Amino acid sequence: MPPKLHKVFDPEFLSFRKDISASQLAAAEGDLTRVMEELQADSRLLNMINRDGNTMLLLAVANEQAHVADFLLKAKADLSVQNLFKMDAIDYATKDSLRTPIARVVLSACDYVIPPAFDGPMWQLCDRALMNLKEDKTRVIKTSLIGPIPDFAVASKTSEYKSQWIKNLLYLAHTVQHGYLMLSSDFAYLERDAILTGALEIPADYRFVYQVDERKVHPFAWAMRKVWAEDLEARFIAASNGGNTMGVMALLRARASPNAEDANGKTALMHASQVGDPHVLRMLIQAGAKVNAVNRHGYSSFLIAAVSGQEDAVRLLLKAQADLGLKSFKGNTVLDFVKHEGHRNILDIICQRWRQEEEAGIFQFHRWWDEISEAMVKMARVTFQSHSHRSRLRLQPQAPVVASCTYLAVSCLFR
């Protein structure tokens, strides 16, 4: 990068050069009156390039002549011209800070902030979008201006760099004329690239969506109503059922309801509980999914998780105050199903939660003591009988877990 006043920008040096027009010298010196007169006489001077590759705009910006740059930009000076240093007006305007007067003038003349075309299934379509925008002479700022995109994957950690990057991105989106432009209206872009590029960190009012085939830009709210609304719930259910953590996160941020249901009344949380992905379950619970909702058979998310043997799901749902006493429409509780299926591991988790809450002074499990202890005794009996050929005095290898939980249940009953 050249120094702040490299000789190719220095008005004193330029005044001795015979190839520099009066209009370019006036732009470098900040003489707005002379610039206006020259352009009125010959509008072709606006984007004329000297031997260094500099235009009037580049000379004005490099010399921080904000008032001249503002006039030239309103006159439709070309922002994309690069000089021999491979730098354009945006590079010079922001080389010291995004918040200098010259930076604000140049940034506010741009239409949108845009991400790169991300590697993956949407790359080709996004690359077409970038080419279209360039051909249509849409003034854009690339997010590369503020540095490499941080990791926005589900399990990524917050860092000082990530926080600062988001802060700068928000500033750019508020400074340009419109906001942030997502490069495709395809659902696959919304479910993946919109997360990875940081697009969903931007408030919805400052998000815009590009339709590649039509070469049109629409507000994000329009895309939600006209493009995504019809299939949003179905895509959300599919993402929850498939353990697609990124898709679930993206669609939640795009205002998908955490309580979306399929045709059978099975909610996204029920689907996630059956699959057991802890990331998806946490996101849905934190987004306000109803933990104790039931489907048309009366099955709750907790019952589905327990019957499916999904230990992580059972733990998370118990922590989220899942109701152990909910009954299906045929009158069966979770404990009835657990006993029937023989899920000792699930019953053990229920007992562990019982013990933790008792230690914390919470006694919501007391009303289920009889049912829990009955289930533990029944499982212990079944286990003993099925392995009696090994020993009449020894249980199977999993028995210590059963025995400890049975002891817990019985000891609590006689306190």
TrEMBL record:
Alphabetized UniProt keyword annotations: ANK repeat, Repeat
Pfam families given in the database record: Ank, Ank_2
Repeat positions for ANK: 52-84, 264-296, 297-329
Residues of the signal peptide: none
Highest taxon, organism lineage: Eukaryota
UniProt keyword Repeat, yes or no: yes
Entry annotated with the keyword Repeat: yes
The name this protein goes by in its record: Uncharacterized protein
